[in-house]
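Reviewer comment 2.1 asked that we show a complete input and output for one of the modelled complexes. We chose the adenosine-5'-diphosphate case, as it is the one discussed in the main text.
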Amino acid sequence: MTDTSFPSLPLSDQLLSNLSSLGYETMTPIQAASLPLILKGQDVIAQAKTGSGKTAAFGLGLLSNLNVKRFRVQTLVLCPTRELADQVAKEIRRLARAIHNIKVLTLCGGMPFGPQIGSLEHGAHIVVGTPGRIEEHLRKERLCLAELNTLVLDEADRMLDMGFQATVDAILEATPKQRQTLLFSATYPPEIQAIADRVMKSPKVVTVAEEKSQSTIEQRFFEVRDEEHRREAAMQLLFDNKPQSTIVFCNTKRECQDVADELRSHGIEALALHGDLEQRDRDRTWVRFSNRSASVLVATDVAARGLDMDDLDLVINYHVALDAEVHVHRIGRTGRAGQKGKAYTLFSGREIRKVRALEEEQNITVEESALPEQDLDLAWFPKPEMSTLQIDGGKKDKLRPGDILGGLTGKSGIEGNQVGKINVFSTYAYVAVERSTAKVALKKLGQDKLKGRQFRVREIRGR
Ligand code: ADP
Ligand code: MG
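Response of the prediction step:
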C-alpha cells in the first residue's frame, strides 16, 4: 500500500504542521497521485472530478517552489472565472498561512483597474487571475513574469470552453521557458492534449477515474420489433422526455444520417456526426451541439470519441453497442458531476445475446421497460436554448473571444449572460447566443467592426 500521509512528502515542517491544523489528515487520491511528481519539479497534467482537492495539489507544489525572500511574481495561476480565482486564492492563503509574509494577489476581469495597479506596484509572490485581465496587465507592462517559476492552468477544460486559448497563449509568451507547468482539469478533451504538447515539457499525466455510481445513471432497455419500430421508439423516447441535450449512438455512418434526418423531419433539431464529414463540418456540428444550439447529436462511437460534454441529459443506444466496454463508455457520458442522467438502449430479438453479455459484464439485470405511446403527429419538441452565429474571421484575423463578446454586448447589443460558448478557429469563429436574441445579435455584429474590420456574420441553421 502506498503511503498517503502528508509527512511522506518532501514538504517543509511549516507546511506540514499547518496541514494538520487544517484537518488535512491524508492526501486525496489526486493529491497522492500528483504531489510526488509535482514536488520533483515535473510538469504534470492532473485530471480528477470537482471537489477532489486539486487546489491543494498545485498549491503545495507552488508554495514549495517559492523563495519568500525574493519579492517577485514567482507563480501564476490562471482560472476561468473570478469566482474560481477567488476560491483558489483563498485556499492558497490557507495553505500558506504558516509562512510569513507571502503575498497572494488576485487579478480578475470585471473588477476596477485602479486597486489592481496599486497592488501590482506593491508587488506579490503569487498571482491568481483570469486570462483576459492578466493579459491586459502584461500588455500594459504592469505585470512582469520574468521570474516566474510555476505556471498553473486550473480548470483548463473550462478555460478552453470559454474560448481563452489565444489569450492563454499570449500570456505564455511572456513567461520564461524554464518553468514548471501544471495543468488541472475535470475532463480530458483532446484540446487539452494539444495545449500540453505545445506548452509543457514531457508532462506526466495522472488521472483519478471518477467512480461512476451506477445509481446516478438511470439505465433502461426497450425491445423493438424491427427497424421501423426502432425509429419510432427513439422518437417516442425523445418526445416523452423532451431533453435539452441527447446523444443517439448508431453503429454505422449511414444510420447516423438517416436517423438525424428522420428526427429533423419531426421538428427535432438533430445533427449527424460521423467520419464521412469533413473536419470543418465535424467541428461545426460538435460546436452547435455542445453550445446547446442543437438538441440531439446522432453519432458513431468513433466520431464522438474524445468529445466531452458534462451536462448531457440522455444517451440513447440506437443499437446495442458492439461490445460491453463501448456500452459502458457511451452511458458514462451522462450522469456527470453527480447529476442524474438517463441511458436508454433499444434492442431487437437479434441483439438479445449482446444484452445478456452486458448483464454479465455490468453485473445488472436487464428488465424490459414499456415504450411510451403517444401520437407522434401531435407531439411537440422544445427548440434548443441557443442559436449559433458564424463569423467569417478567426485567429488569423487576430480575432479573440473577448472581441466577439465585446462586439455583441454594449449599446444596442445583447447582455453578456445571453452569450454562450465562443469557439474561435483559424479563419472562422462561432458564438452561441440565446435563441431569442439571435436577430439583435446578428444585427449588432453585422453593423459594428471587430478589430477594425467588418466580418460576414450569419446564423447557422439546417443540417
Ligand atoms: P477541486 O479543485 O478538485 O474541485 P478543491 O481543491 O476545491 O477541489 O477541494 C475541495 C475541498 O476539499 C476543499 O474544501 C478543500 O479544503 C478540501 N481538501 C482538499 N484536500 C484535502 C485533504 N487532503 N484533506 C481534507 N480536505 C481536503
Ligand atoms: Mg478546482
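The chain has three domains: 6-207, 214-362, 386-460. We note this here for comparison with the apo prediction described in Section 3.2.
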